[in-house]
Write a structure and sequence with these properties.
Blueprint (H helix, E strand, L loop, with lengths): L1 H19 L3 H6 L5 E7 L5 H18 L3 E7 L4 H14 L3 E4 L4 H13 L3 E5 L10 E5 L1 H18 L6 E6 L5 H14 L6 E6 L4 H14 L5 E4 L2 H13 L7 E3 L10 H6 L6 E3 L4 H12 L7 E4 L2 E3 L4 H8 L3
Parallel strand pairs: 1-2, 1-3, 3-4, 4-5, 5-11, 6-7, 6-8, 8-9
Antiparallel strand pairs: 10-12
């Protein structure tokens, strides 16, 4: 009798796995021909993330409203919250999950669970510890870091600044963008003769960067360059320097290059930032690939979008290209 029970249990597991792996087109057909797509956002409070959400909603409304039911969850920069939200998404039986992981290692297991349950998965912009998904859509943060580091190096050398002091305001530790933007930039900055780099961590947040920069300004009578891993932190550093009457002593370099009045491109136009780099949100592209996958089309395993350097010379052109009303 015990063997019969074990055999029955094993058969139930097989049936469950087979059911989870059912073709998404069949599932959509049973739901009136519509697909359920969920986006697990790591932190909607960040301007870059808010722009992603906006682009997703706009693209769904304009292109896919007749075939997609789309939802967004917000982990608020909390790994446990994002894991719980994805577990709930799995229970809802969605057809496709797009995930922007808060941190790589903690989110890998639950995304694997989603994928193994039969849900198609696109990893957006921040990679996981393992490729437990169907597709990755992002940009190369090492390249963006290298471009920023080259810009800082060229500026210091062209200005003939001796014994330069550079502040590197880093993003959230444990995330790949932070590590890669650091790695790429330091390949160039560290080659500047007698450079001193002061590292601080502000978790991608403007308010935290401003607070950290206030302390750095008190401790350092001279700072030549601030390189921040995103534009909000660069702006936070600028505001602290302005409050201290020292904003003219240094330049501020950021990353993200969002459009709109509050975005980094406008900050370059306004003279707050010397330079930023457009880090593609990847949202519109990910949604197009999601629909293609759900309709049975072949898609590449990895798509890497190109960054763009933004200075005074091209800021207005790119502002007009990237700003969504």
């Amino acid at each position: 009798m015990r063997n019969v029970v074990q055999l029955a249990a094993a058969m139930l597991v097989v049936w469950a796995v087979a059911g989870c792996g059912a073709d998404t087109a069949d599932r959509a057909a049973s739901d009136g021909g519509r697909f359920k797509v969920a986006f697990s956002q790591c932190n909607s409070a960040e301007p870059y993330r808010a722009e992603q959400n906006k682009i997703f909603r706009t693209a769904v409304a304009e292109k896919y409203a007749d075939i997609i039911d789309f939802s967004i969850t917000d982990a608020q920069q909390d790994n446990s919250r994002q894991i719980a939200q994805i577990e709930n998404i799995i229970l809802q039986g969605v057809d496709l999950l797009i995930v922007a992981p808060n941190e790589a290692a903690p989110l890998t297991r639950v995304v694997r669970n989603a994928h193994e349950s039969g849900i198609k998965v696109i990893c957006l912009e921040r990679d996981l510890a393992e490729p437990v998904y169907d597709m990755f859509v992002g940009a190369d943060n090492v390249v963006i870091g290298e471009m920023a580091g080259q810009y800082v190096k060229d500026y210091l050398e062209s200005e003939g600044i001796e014994n330069p002091v550079v502040v590197e305001m880093k993003g959230l530790l444990g995330t790949r963008p932070q590590a890669e933007r650091h790695e790429g930039a330091r390949k160039y900055i560290d080659t500047v003769p007698d450079v001193r780099v002061i590292e601080e961590v502000a978790d991608w947040l403007q308010s935290e960067a401003r607070r950290r920069m206030e302390t750095l300004l008190q401790a350092n009578p001279r700072i030549d360059v601030v390189y921040a891993h995103n534009d909000p932190m660069a702006v936070g550093c600028f505001l602290a320097a302005r409050d201290a009457g020292r904003e003219e002593e240094m330049i501020f370099v950021g990353v993200d290059g969002l459009g709109g009045e509050a975005g980094g491109i406008k900050k370059v136009m306004d003279g707050v930032l010397q330079c930023t780099f457009v880090y593609p949100t990847c949202a519109a592209e990910a949604l197009d690939f999601a629909v293609a996958m759900l309709q049975g089309e072949e898609v590449p395993e990895r798509v890497i979008l190109e960054p763009v350097k933004i200075t005074k010379e091209n800021a207005e052109e790119w502002y007009n290209k990237t700003t969504i009303e």
